[in-house]
């Protein structure tokens, strides 16, 4: 059973890995770099800070930092040394078959993907913080926060796929990393929400229990334009790829 799963994972990887296009090589190299997305993430944070109390902003910053720290340590510090699954770029049976870009091959082991765990963790935590004030976790397409959550998951998915394109992760690495990141975000959110509600009711920054603005107050301009910032970043990436390819 496990052998069949590994075989399917490798076949799917070969289907999704790389291309003969120098243009796409540049695109996905830019996408995979964390620094590419720093402006979008910083502007989102500034937007959240502008439209929220300092306590709500602190909750978001501390929670997001914890999600990234735990997700990174879980994936790189625990899973990769434990499972010892070679990256496709280091797999002997795939030598000469994997399409690498500029010789980049990553570290020795790849299960689970830190990129997927971190990005999906941030996306999930952001979505939880921006959800409606209700006991169940859901989004309405008519909800003004829905495009922000959708944008964050699109960013996570695109960043994660770039790792397959570049030849350093199998789809299974990405899927496991994404699931781990989402679960870690849920756990961190739930624990922080419980702590703020029970340890000091005066310091409860989830009252109401979300970063969702009240119906009387619109989202800040920077926050509302997160999807625009995402698309603008993609446009810059495409222009850069056209220039250098």
Would you give an account of this structure?
The protein is mainly alpha-helical. The protein has nine helices and no strands. It has helices at about 1-15, 20-30, 35-50, 55-85, 115-130, 145-165, 170-200, 220-225, 225-245. Helix 4 (about 55-85) packs across helix 7 (about 170-200). The protein starts with a helix and ends with a helix. The model is unreliable at about 135-140, about 200-210 and about 215 (pLDDT under 50).
Short description:
66% of the residues lie in helices and 0% in strands.
List the helices and strands and how they pair.
Blueprint (H helix, E strand, L loop, with lengths): L1 H15 L5 H11 L1 H18 L2 H30 L30 H16 L16 H20 L5 H28 L22 H4 L1 H19 L1
Helix pairs in contact: 2-6, 2-9, 3-9, 4-5, 4-7, 5-6, 5-7
The share of residues in extended strands comes to under 5%
**Count of helical regions:** 9
Can you give the helix content as a percent range? 55-70%
Radius of gyration: 19 Å
Q: Major sheet, described briefly?
A: none
What's the total number of strands?
A: 0
Task: Give the N-terminus to C-terminus distance in angstroms.
Answer: 43 Å
Low-confidence stretches: 133-142, 202-209, 213-217
**Overall average residue pLDDT:** 85
The shape, in one word, is: flat
Q: What string gives the helices and strands in order?
A: HHHHHHHHH
Please name the defining characteristics of this protein.
mainly alpha; single chain; 245 residues; 9 helices
């Amino acid at each position: 059973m496990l052998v069949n799963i590994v075989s399917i994972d490798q076949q799917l990887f070969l289907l999704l890995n790389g291309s003969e296009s120098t243009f796409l090589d540049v695109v996905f190299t830019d996408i995979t770099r964390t620094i590419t997305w720093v402006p979008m993430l910083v502007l989102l944070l500034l937007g959240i800070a502008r439209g929220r109390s300092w306590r709500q902003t602190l909750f978001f910053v501390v929670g997001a930092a914890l999600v990234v720290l735990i997700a990174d340590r879980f994936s790189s510090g625990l899973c990769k040394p434990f499972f010892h699954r070679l990256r496709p770029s280091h797999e002997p049976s795939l030598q000469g078959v994997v399409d690498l870009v500029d010789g980049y091959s990553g570290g020795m082991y790849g299960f689970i993907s830190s990129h997927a765990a971190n990005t999906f963790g941030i996306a999930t935590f952001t979505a939880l913080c921006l959800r409606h004030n209700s006991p169940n976790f859901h989004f309405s397409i008519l909800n003004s926060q829905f495009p922000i959550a959708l944008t964050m998951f699109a960013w996570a998915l695109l960043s994660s796929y770039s790792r397959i394109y570049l030849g350093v992760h199998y789809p299974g690495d990405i899927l496991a990393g994404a699931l781990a990141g989402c679960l870690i975000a849920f756990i961190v959110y739930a624990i922080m929400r419980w702590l703020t509600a029970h340890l000091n009711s005066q310091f409860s920054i989830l009252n109401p229990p979300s970063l969702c603005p009240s119906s009387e107050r619109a989202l800040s301009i920077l926050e509302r334009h997160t999807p625009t910032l995402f698309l603008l970043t993609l446009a810059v990436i495409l222009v850069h790829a056209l220039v250098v390819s």
